[in-house]
Amino acid sequence: MSGLPKRIIKETKNLILDPVPGMKTDIPDEDNLRYLSVEMEGPGNSPYQGGVFNLELYLPEDYPMEPPKIRFLTPVYHPNIDKLGRICLDVLKDHWSPAFQIRTVLLSIQQLLDTPNPDDPLLSDVAELCKSNNAEYCKIAKEWTLKYAVTKKEV
Amino acid sequence: MAIPRSFRLLEELEKGEKGGSQACSYGLSNGDDVSMTNWNGTILGAPNSVHANRIYSVEIICGPKYPDEPPLIKFVSKINLQCVDQKTGDVIVDKFTIMNNWKRSTTIEDCLMELRKEMITPANKTLAQPNEGSIF
Question: What's the gap in Å between the CA of A155 and the closest CA on chain B?
Fold first, then answer.
């Protein structure tokens, strides 16, 4: 595919050949090499443990001057992830640097699952619960993980 | 390698949430709809016309092929325009240039703003209008 910057080719190739632990990246549409699908395992010792979360990622025309666009496709109960799967994370916005990579972003998102940031929430009700009754927040997040992110193996 | 449907619609949603244009507004009908298919919009009637100060509600459906194909737009509020089916409120694509000559870069907001312009074209300007507030 002509016209695709070398940096993108290199980054995506690396992601597929040398994946981030607990993540699987794929190019679902050979005609659009700027569009990636990601399967992310929930971090251990978090309410998302055991879940596999699907995300979609798009590298805009101005990448890496502009951050990648990314969202969850699997529903996640989390103060910084809204119902459309949009993610509130500084490196995806004001704190983006062209020195970061897709890999950096994916690790930051996995980290965000592990460490919610209820002081800069996207969903104020979830953030409130996360702060006031963390056990209850963890319980709901776990239920959502089981309901949406765990594929039941065929018996 | 154009922007995929989902991220394009997220961009449009973000612009709409920030207020978009003063003369129209738009957003998801259901904030939980991950497919971002059904939208609601309003168009403020064109000034210096019989439409001035009226607010028209529309429904917008962005199908799976949007933005390669135009959305479906339907007026909920009654309005008499040549490009609007007077029985159903549907915008008739053949009679509405921006949707008939669809470009991938055209947005929901562009469509709503063009509908507003339609209100004051010579062909539409003299049409009698239904009572304000009536619906299809």
Answer: 30
Contact A84 B3 (CB under 8 A): no
Which residue from B4, B33, B34 is facing A32, i.e. has the nearest CB? B4
B4 touching A, CB under 8 A? yes
Give the pLDDT confidence of A89-117 residue by residue, as tens digits: 999 999 999 999 999 999 999 999 999 99
What pTM does this model have?
0.90
Calpha distance A36→A39 (Å, rounded): 10
CATH topology of domain B5-125: Ubiquitin Conjugating Enzyme (3.10.110)
What are the structure tokens assigned to B53, written together?
Answer: 């100060």
CB A38 within 8 A of CB A25: yes
Of the partner residues A32, A83, A86, the one whose CB lies closest to the CB of residue B1: A32
Min distance B77 CA to chain A CA atoms (Å): 29
Of A28, A2, A6, A10, the residue nearest A102 (C-alpha): A10
pLDDT reported for residue A152: 64
**CA atoms of A17 and A126, how far apart (whole Å):** 37
Q: What are the residue ranges spanned by the domains of chain A?
A: 6-149
In chain B, which residues have their Cβ closer than 8 Å to the Cβ of A31? Answer: 1
Residue extents of the structural domains in chain B: 5-125
CATH class of A6-149: alpha beta
For residue B3, the chain A residues in CB contact (below 8 A) are 58, 60
Mean pLDDT of all residues in B45-55: 91
Burial class from Cβ neighbours inside 10 Å (0-12, 13-18, 19+) for residue A61 reads: exposed
Q: What is the ipTM of this complex?
A: 0.87
What is the interface size between A and B, counted as CB pairs within 8 Å? 37
Region A45-57 average pLDDT: 96
Look at residue A1 in the predicted model and tell me its pLDDT: 47
For residue B126, what pLDDT band results from cuts at 50, 70 and 90?
confident
* Cβ–Cβ gap B1/A73 under 8 Å: no
